[in-house]
């Protein structure tokens, strides 16, 4: 395993009297899938926002990327550091094409004009590189299935230069077949050398693609296990009872 791409040390986040995240340590390396699993209220949403630069850690916590401690002022700083997050809502515009969504807010230009031809060519390149199965980059996103929409949202962060892709409940509300397609996309990201963090409450869905599991319970790390050294039952036990 290569040196960690990202390390989090003693991450804490308190809102008033509520300790949402309590001293979380984690790391993830290039070419690895780390799944953070836990029940509702475990602190997953707050943790993902800390890793994405939405929240700053409480004093004493730090995020290290490429060996350097980060001081992010917001999500853009995290993206500039190669850390990008795909949230459940995907933030896609249904009426616009796949290519337009891939470059949303970052349109390629030739002089004062949007360069649609260059955007289509680059969209086709990234989708081909990661074998994303879409009918065309010219169709509106409204015509895509749930799994295909996930692929568009992931393709967008890859075009932003993401080296670590954080996926927030990527199979939520998807059927079995569409969930399988999303899991296949995650596997291709890992095979391409990307680091991937998957946030999920559905352990069975992410089991096959995961290299290591972090069980989160009441804002704390209940345990970290390599897949080959654990079982589904043990991870469920950690989520419910802790170590």
Concise overview:
Helix content is 32%, strand content 28%. The protein is α/β, with parallel strands linked by helices and 243 residues long. The protein has a 6-stranded mixed beta sheet with strand order 6-9-10-3-11-12, sandwiched between helices.
CATH architecture designation: 3-Layer(aba) Sandwich
Gross geometry: globular
Unreliable parts: none
Please give the share of residues in helix: 25-40%
CATH class descriptor name: Alpha Beta
Number of helices: 8
Structural class: alpha/beta
Structural account:
The structure is a single chain. With 243 residues, the protein is of the alpha/beta class. It has one domain: P-loop containing nucleotide triphosphate hydrolases (Rossmann fold, 3-Layer(aba) Sandwich), CATH 3.40.50. Helices cover 32% and strands 28% of the residues. It has a 6-stranded mixed beta sheet, sandwiched between helices. A 4-stranded antiparallel beta sheet has the order 2-1-4-5, with helices on one face. The chain has a two-stranded antiparallel ribbon with strand order 7-8. Residues 6-243 form the ABC transporter domain. It holds the Pfam family ABC_tran. One of its GO terms (molecular function) is ATP hydrolysis activity.
Topology:
Blueprint: E1 4-15, E2 18-29, E3 33-37, H1 44-51, E4 62-65, E5 68-69, H2 75-80, E6 83-86, H3 98-102, E7 109-110, E8 113-114, H4 116-129, H5 146-159, E9 164-168, H6 176-191, E10 195-200, H7 203-206, E11 212-217, E12 220-226, H8 232-241
